[in-house]
Amino acid sequence: MVSSTTPPAPKAPVTNKIGLTLADYKGSPSTLCDGCGHDAITSQIIKAFWELSIEPHQVAKFSGIGCSSKTPAYFLSRAHGFNSVHGRMPSVATGAHMANHKLITLGVSGDGDTASIGLGQFGHLIRRNVPMVYIVENNGVYGLTKGQFSATADIGSTLKDGTVNRQTAIDLCGLAIELGCGYVARSFAGDPKQLVALIKGALAHKGTALLDVISPCVTFNNHDGSTKSYKYAKEMDRPLHELGFIPFYEQITVDYEPGTVQDVQMHDGSHMRLKKIGNDYDPTDRFVADRAIHQSHKDGTLLTGLLYVDESQQNYSSLANLVDVPLASLGQNELRPPKSALDEIMAELT
Amino acid sequence: MDKKLIVNDFSIHVATVNGSGSQSSNAVLLKSIFQMGIPVSGKNLFPSNIMGLPTWFTIRVNKDGYIARKKEVDILVAMNPQTAVDDIKALRPGAVCVSPVELNLDKIRDDVQHYLVPFGELANKASDNVKLKKLLTNIIYVGVVAELLEIDQVEIDAAIARQFEGKTKAIDLNIHAAKIGREWAKENLKKSDPYRVERLNLTQGKIIVEGNKAAAIGCLFAGVSVVTWYPITPSSSLCEELIDYLDRFRTDKETGKKSYAVVQAEDELAAVGMAIGAGWAGSRSMTSTSGPGISLMAEFVGFAYFTEIPVVIFDVQRVGPSTGLPTRTSQADLLSAYLLSHGDTKHVVLLPNSVGECYEMAMEAFDLAERLQTPVFVLSDLDLGMNMWMSDPFIYPEKPFDRGKVLSKEDLERLGGFGRYDDVDGDGMTYRTLPGTEHPKAGYFVRGSGHNKNAAYSERPEDYMYLMDRLLKKFDNAKALIPQIEVDQNNDAKIGIIAFGSTHWAILETRDMLANEKIATSYCRLRALPLTKGVEQFIDAHDRVYIVEQNRDGQMLDILRMEMPHLTAKMKSVRHYNGMPIDAEFVVNGILEQEKNAR
Q: Which residues on A lie below 8 Å from B280 (Cβ)?
């Protein structure tokens, strides 16, 4: 089930069990904004795969479109990667999994990619229980198209131009539980300890594992009044460069005890309240999970941790009763029935 | 009444209500004639509905082997009270009408040969069960028609036995009911029409099959391993038949393990996305759809074109969007399939004309998709896909699979690495690796149009140009690999005909009809896109070339004009687009009308 949340040994070994270094799990340099939460998530993905000694070539990485969907290029460069079309990563991953069910499948998506354009495929991926880790790097905003609301933007939140979001947010964890997802977790990009544990847990899960990671956008989540806001910078900078100007921020990091509430100061000076699930929380009880999520909405807190887990469901490929080897590895001898089969069919048609 | 007999050359038009079970009766009628060695074809004209709406089934019996649609009805079986009046009004004088006596159709037309049958009474004799009575009425008309046309009862019995294979009770019941109809007709009807069948020996060894089933058989022997689809008329039966065949022939008898996966997707976007994912991961993958599905697949297909992922897409074409005429045929997806998606895309499109080619081209499509690493379309249509066609039996493929350029672990060890989009062979076709290949250099990253030779992110103009020009080179090289045109050149002919797909059958008849008018024609049948040099030569060799197709805008004509602008003046067009399968008479009239002006 869920792997241990024990922090890694203080001195990480140079190589893991299969003789690879942490660097062997890295990808191309990130092209995201400095201080972006997504890069912090990337680091924890690298760490989790390395610590679990997963063969990189056995991994297939998938994503849709958006800032988050660029990140699979920034880790596990030895793995095959597939940056697909907007909101449709689940279908590509499903097909690839059916073709080769031995692959360890990891998808990275964003809130726009998953909760808006991709909500349908997200839902059906979960319904099928295709074994894969599905990470949503959730910032409530469209970063790559410069800061429009997504469907996970909280009601009452504002855009930089002051536009107020009047629509309720889609809670992807709540939705995933409703759809029958067997591993539902929420975390925060700046909480490496919790995040790496949840990624490892997700990798150990045999069905679809959803990890909704709150990852604030350093560029488009600013208040009007901030002197480091996009708007302020635009006014202060030379017009030629205004579109290219990206403010620099340090990554936010938190480390706090289970069962406690912690305020985190955001890039724009606002606060995010994180409440960690207590040790007495039973993540195997769907009703408890549902109630906890609704309670956190009421309290205005962000509930993080492993919200729900159910290891009992059969996943899609095992239900399909496939041959043991990947379908992709089958050759003509296995795939083309003998002449007698055609003779039999023809006899039926005369 | 003209006493001259008309033997083995007529059409039977059966009007019923859909959901009434007439489909199996009509199949029995068709097969019994087929079993007598007489060429037949069957066309089902049905509504987009499950029960209660009018449906018609037309059987063409033709000693010369013409199996295109024949517009004129010779024998009407008017079983549907809803449409009976319209049906009989449409008949030409002298035609035959078999109808339930209570419809009083003889009061509407007196220039038609009527056979009034008390179907209700006869059904009462066939069964006491109210539900069965309704079903058996259909087989009773088969008995009546069999008697009138002199179809041997042994063939009716055999066809019923085949139709209800394994269900002894149903077989007995149906044979009994057919005989009730036959006996009644023998005693009570005075045969006074000229139509009858006579045994021939022209169907021996032949099969009768729908194009969708034929394509499914092709996919089975092509070794498809991932099938992803979303139900849509008229393509659904392709995947449904395939699923049955896969279950029979690709499931391990002992372990129950399957060498294939089928996913019924949530929509066509997902269906093609899954097929692309599976093709990327190295399986032979496909989806099947119709026009609306093609529209939904547009974005993904372009993506697969630019990222060079093999996938096979069947498009069983129908009329237009949404509800309305989804159960009518057309060839109107040609342009959208050929150029599907955004940003400089064009695709290989195979154009089967027969059930035999549905079978063969299904296999070719998978080879081409993997060789060219690109989406390959197979464009069938409702007429071909869902109607019953006579054919020679399919031949077991001798050609081994072509899996295209795939590098193994050993290859990578030897080469030390590879550039996913590097044209090392100079043919525009590059090497790929499959996910899971055990080598540190095997991995690469798939991303839209912005990539360089090594699949790395690039927005450099020269990288994009390299990609675009190479894709074009690959497309040009595809011309040698795709199914080639079939030309019947007549050196006396001033005019040529170009057609493709199911239109072919009307053209065969058209050419004979024109020859009777002393008009010689040549014929070029297109079997795939892109167009090849031979098409250009064919047009060039004639004064006028008629492009005959089943869509409003002359889509193949558009493609020809676009790619051979210097020959535009020679191109003429005949377009059929009322939703019904094209017939020879229409083509002949279309050509003669324009020939009048040309001379």
A: 82, 92, 95-96, 99
Decide if B396 and A339 are in contact by the 8 Å CB cutoff: yes
A–B CB contacts, 8 A cutoff, strictly below: 224
Query: What is the least distance, in Å, from the CA of B157 to any CA of chain A?
Result: 15
Domain range for A79: 22-325
Q: What pLDDT digit, counting tens, does each position of A258-301 carry?
A: 666 655 554 555 555 556 667 677 888 899 899 989 988 888 77
Chain A hits for B442, CB-CB cut-off 8 Å, are 57, 78, 80
Q: Rounded CA gap, B179 and B90, in Å? A: 30
In a domain, A13, yes or no: no
For residue B367, give how far its alpha carbon lies from the nearest alpha carbon of chain A (Å): 12
Q: Has residue A80 been placed in a domain?
A: yes
For residue B352, what are the CA distances in angstroms to B211, B245, B484, B504? 9, 21, 11, 10
Question: Is B329 found in the same domain as B431?
Answer: no
How many angstroms separate the CA of residue B36 from the nearest CA in chain A?
Answer: 12
Both B325 and B246 in one domain: the answer is yes
Instruction: Give the pLDDT of residue A228.
Output: 26
* Together in a domain, B368 and B417: no
DSSP character for A302?
E
**B250 and B384 within one domain:** yes
Distance CA(A187)–CA(A194), nearest Å, equals 7
Cβ contacts of B394 on chain A, cutoff 8 Å: 342, 346
Type of residue numbered A79: A
* Same domain (yes/no): B474, B494: no
Q: How many domains does chain A have?
A: 1
Helix or strand holding residue B86 (H, E): helix B84-89
By CB neighbour count within 10 A (0-12 exposed, 13-18 middle, 19+ buried), where does A127 fall?
middle
Tokens of B162: 């085949």
- Whether residue B272 lies inside any domain: the answer is yes
Is B393 in contact with A350 (Cβ distance < 8 A)?
yes
- Say whether both B358 and B436 belong to one domain: no
Q: Kindly state whether residues B217 and B364 are assigned to the same domain.
A: yes
B28-69 pLDDT, tens digit per residue, is 999 999 999 999 999 988 877 777 788 999 999 999 999 999
Q: Which of residues 127-156 of A touch B (CB under 8 A)?
A: 128
- All residues of chain B having their beta carbon less than 8 Å from the beta carbon of residue A322 are 257-259, 261
User: Which positions in chain A touch B439 (Cβ < 8 Å)?
Assistant: 57
Are the Cβ atoms of B456 and A341 closer than 8 angstroms? no
Q: Is residue B251 part of a domain?
A: yes
Q: How many residues does chain B have?
A: 599
Please give the ipTM for the structure prediction: 0.94
A84 to B437: CB separation less than 8 angstroms, yes or no: no
Q: Which domain holds residue B415?
A: 409-478
Q: Rounded distance, CA B470 to CA B473, Å?
A: 5
Within B314-447, residue ranges assigned H as helices are 334-338, 355-372, 382-386, 409-415
Domain boundary (B478, B504, B529) is at B478
How many CA atoms does the CB half-sphere of A14 hold within 13 Å?
Answer: 0
A148 versus B310: the higher-pLDDT residue is: B310
In which band, very low, low, confident or very high, does the pLDDT at A216 lie, cut at 50, 70 and 90? confident
In this structure, are B350 and B430 located in the same domain?
no
Angle, alpha carbons A330-A332-A338 (nearest 5°)? 125
Of A81, A96, A341, the CB nearest to B278: A96
Instruction: Tell me the shortest Cα–Cα distance from B324 to chain A, in angstroms.
Output: 27
